[in-house]
Amino acid sequence: xxxxxxxxxxxxxxxxxxxxxxxxxxxxxxxxxxxxxxxxxxxxxxxxxxxxxxxxxxxxxxxxxxxxxxxxxxxxxxxxxxxxxxxxxxxxxxxxxxxxxxxxxxxxxxxxxxxxxxxxxxxxxxxxxxxxxxxxxxxxxxxxxxxxxxxxxxxxxxxxxxxxxxxxxxxxxxxxxxxxxxxxxxxxxxxxxxxxxxxxxxxxxxxxxxxxxxxxxxxxxxxxxxxxxxxxxxxxxxxxxxxxxxxxxxxxxxxxxxxxxxxxxxxxxxxxxxxxxxxxxxxxxxxxxxxxxxxxxxxxxxxxxxxxxxxxxxxxxx
Length: 318
Known about the structure:
The protein is of the alpha+beta class.
């Protein structure tokens, strides 16, 4: 049994706090056979064996045993995936055509070789990270689309509810990329909507700005429908994005019983579609995003708990 971590080029990653590299190192420390698979080496065959070029690696953790001190790929070898092997789909979003191609290819490989892909490609394709959150009974009042008439009707609805500020964001990006906060009194509101539709070539999400973000946004990580840990991320003074990569602070936290039960139910439902690894983003009492493409912040949550949670995941495969 081997574990292949299908990842972006190392030069694109923040080595110090990359969840995938953390998992690769910790899985190996548990005795698992582990390799790296890069985009440039990934392919499939339909009439003969798919023999992938994979890489060995070496690295170490800092004294805290959580953040990475160093990491590098080393020797390469040929690996033929088969039953009982795992490929961890850890390519970073956005969920664009490039990403979709990889999901199609991984699904094909899973069918042809019986290798297990985590998260399951079909599961990822079925569940958009934002729309899955908006399906919940308690969710953010949201408009999704490119229709100007629909957008203006939504603005009228928000004004009637005495909403003052709006969030516009693309449907398929991540880490706060493309997010704008705009006053409903802004005379250029429609023009900004049009510009974003043009820039991102399609449907845009519009939502009332939730002031709960100033109190912090929770990130709850689940694996195999079990909670691993929860942190709260707080934006810097004067900011509205609680993104750690952009300087937000974080600390250990916990969810209310109501939210815990909801996350548990969602995790159990998604597990039926082969979605093992989930990271929930929560503002106030509302789940705003259900991250399944390449859930992150495992390093930060581990640090808050003073426990390497990648080890907890790796132990499931012993």
